Amino acid sequence: MGLFKLKDFPGRGSFANGIHPPENKEYSADLPVEVMPTPEKIVLPLLQNIGAPCEPLVKANQEVAAGELVGKGKGYVSAALHSPVTGKVQKIGMMTLPNGRHLQAVFIKPEGEQLEGKALWDDVYGGDWPRDCPAVIHAQQIADEIQAAGIVGLGGAAFPTHVKLAPDDKKMIDTLMINGCECEPYLTADYRLMVEAPDAIISGALFAGRATQAQEIVICVEDNKPKAIEILKERTKKTVIKVVSVKTKYPQGSEKHLIKAVLDLEVPIGGLPSDVGVSMSNVATIAAVGRAVIRGKPLTHRIITVTGAGVHSPKNLLVPIGVTMGEAIAYCGGLKKEAVRLVAGGPMMGFAFSDMDAPVTKGTNGIIAMTDDDIRRENETNCVRCGRCVDVCPMRLVPTKLALAAKYKNLPVAQRYNMMACFECGCCTYVCPAHIRLVQLIRSGKALIIASQKK
Amino acid sequence: MNETSLENIKDIPAGEDKPLIHVAPSPHIASTSATTTRMMADVLIALFPIMCMSVYLFKWHAVRQIAVCLGCCMAAEALFAAMRGRRATLADCSAAVTGIILGLSLPASAPWYIGAIASFVAIGIGKVVFGGLGMNIFNPAMVGRAFVMISFANLMGASAYEQPGLGIDAMTGATPLTALKQAGSMVPLNDMFWGLTNGSVGETSALLCLIGGIYLCIRKTACWEIPAGIIISVLVLAGIADLAGPCSGYLVLHHFLGGALLFGAFFIATDPVTSPVTPKGRFVFGVGIGFLVMIIRLFSGYPEGVMFAVLLMNALAPLINRWTIPKTLGED
């Protein structure tokens, strides 16, 4: 924490506790984004976001064009789904996502002419990005276009973005925060986006600011990305957008902690950023908003980082959403023999998978191939109550107590110690000298609480 | 949650040519610097200079106390673990730490069987009956010491420290705190700072306790809140006693440097198992120990009170944990 204070904001640029895992971003940080060629197949699960699943609008053997709607969101907290390629629907069948959900998916085989290489990059992030938002566009209209484009949070949580960016009379938004922290080790997808396509983010931010009617727009970047901060500062000079550098620390990119670090506000337990007048979205999400509103294009592509010591040539890739993990890894030279674990997302909160046919979804920001040296598997020993988990918990919980309560299914104690406030960042398990899987136990405890509330 | 499913996760042998991928819940990385064994090894490193000093001062008497306690604690740990049908838990060094701290807290003149009995009580009643490492309520070394202190009062009390017949220079007079209590005389502060005074085997040198303690705090093996709480409250209470008495400033430093205060503050009270887990709770715990130490030193029949103060506060640690649950981010 220290005496350091941000120049334009009440926060200190940091929050209490947290950890400093090795960043391991050097595998891919300096590699420009490559456009992946059109893959052999596309798998589009019908639920890629928090909220309700989509209803399929296509049938087997139907031809689809790139950008065509293939799934319609059911309800308000839901997102539409579009085909990233021109091709033919093979089937609508079941599949399993890395997070363990079994659900329906649309399988598409790309056929005919596709947008490739530089043309695809220009279509998604390249080219000109006008900054002046025509005054005739109404705020709600922007939110509607975001909804139609099927945009969800691309930072990992995949919450439907139109819900966050819609004007709301009950909860006024003062500040639109754009999250470029990328605090998870290994991942560099957001960093490359900020360096290579800052204009897409800035245009998107101006439109998103209009949609939320926020007074202030601020892009937050961790101070381990000086190049991104410099470029964004340079490009935002003539706009209202501010760029703020926050301390490099995991989990700085968590929305509650970033709000604390920048605005010194605490989001109430169980509340949303809008409760303190903040709307927060990831940089990639905001770039997708720009693309949707300015170019009228749905969310069909994203940048992912394929990295780790277990993959032959790490890359930052622009991929169509729905490409299988196997094809993305194969494009990066395939796995080395030492690879023992594949993770979709970051190493702290991502999901391990073994099915190479699982697709990259809207919320997948990276694929990490880890070796035995990277992951530490040791036998659990007794808790010595050293309190390291308490010292690192960014929510200021008592993880050891919560884990015990979960282990013995003691729900009253779990609730007294605010178990539901845990957002499973994994700091406690990371530091535990007894190798106790604290966050895993807490996760099971949270599931028990949710189950008991449903009764 | 099935306990066996989380324990003993063994590596799956990788295939010949193809990588074998297996899954596990996040997080997928872990800190490599922190392990329980490493924490215990840190304590041993910090105790090493103190052991050297004790051997310099008390010659082979110190070697005997440390060796007997170390050996008996390890033997007791192995024996009791076997009786419970558990894997031997010697590798984590926790029994070794208990043994060395126990040995360092005995008077040099105590016969070998005192250390042996104390060790078996420390590990058996202090630790294993509660369920082994991490489960005990009271600091095992102090449980063992309290047992022999009460059972063998003449071999452990003030008279045990005054043994001119042993031929050890330091042991010709009373310990600084006994001298203060009984005769009102004070040992030069310099001697207490460097450790050239009488006392339990490992407690004499304030300087080496400070060096070892600060090392532990920097390594985060011991927390800084407990020693800080103890030292602050002792300084405040001794200061009040000082203001009430004739000596100006001298008594405060005498209480600060004398007896087992610094050894206890950094090595005994900071035992993570028997102290609170929350930062605020640790500070309260430290203040409580300091308060009790001074009450015992000033008003009881004992010249020194670190052992009883630690044991009393150990009993309160669960309660302190309850009182000092940190405020969750976003909680009203």
Key terms for this structure?
heterodimer; A: 455 residues; Rossmann fold; 14 helices; B: 332 residues; mainly alpha; disordered N terminus
What does this protein look like?
Chain A is of the alpha/beta class. Chain A has helices at 117-124, 139-148, 161-165, 189-196, 198-212, 226-235, 255-263, 283-295, 325-331, 388-392, 399-407, 411-416, 427-431, 438-454; strands at 34-35, 42-45, 54-56, 63-64, 69-73, 81-82, 87-96, 102-110, 175-180, 216-222, 242-246, 278-282, 301-307, 315-320, 339-344, 351-353, 366-371. In chain A, a hairpin with a 7-residue loop joins strand 5 (69-73) and strand 6 (81-82). In chain A, helix 2 packs across helix 5 and helix 4 packs parallel to helix 6. The relative contact order of chain A is 0.15. With 332 residues, chain B is mainly α. Chain B has one domain (36-321): Ammonium transporter fold, CATH 1.10.3430. Chain B starts with a helix and ends in a 9-residue tail after the last helix. The chains are: A alpha/beta (455), B mainly alpha (332). The interface between A and B is large, with 80 and 53 residues.
In short, what is this structure?
Chain A is of the alpha/beta class and 455 residues long. Helix content of chain A is 28%, strand content 19%. Among the domains of chain A are: 25-32 and 118-295, NADH-ubiquinone oxidoreductase 51kDa subunit (Rossmann fold, 3-Layer(aba) Sandwich); 388-454, no CATH class.
Which secondary structure elements does this structure contain, and how are they paired or packed?
The complex is a heterodimer of chains A (455) and B (332).
Chain A lengths: L33 E2 L6 E4 L8 E3 L6 E2 L4 E5 L7 E2 L4 E10 L5 E9 L6 H8 L14 H10 L12 H5 L9 E6 L8 H8 L1 H15 L3 E7 L3 H10 L6 E5 L8 H9 L14 E5 H13 L5 E7 L7 E6 L4 H7 L7 E6 L6 E3 L12 E6 L16 H5 L6 H9 L3 H6 L10 H5 L6 H17 L1
Chain B lengths: L2 H4 L29 H48 L10 H11 L7 H13 L15 H12 L1 H4 L1 H4 L14 H8 L5 H6 L11 H13 L6 H20 L5 H8 L3 H8 L10 H21 L6 H18 L9
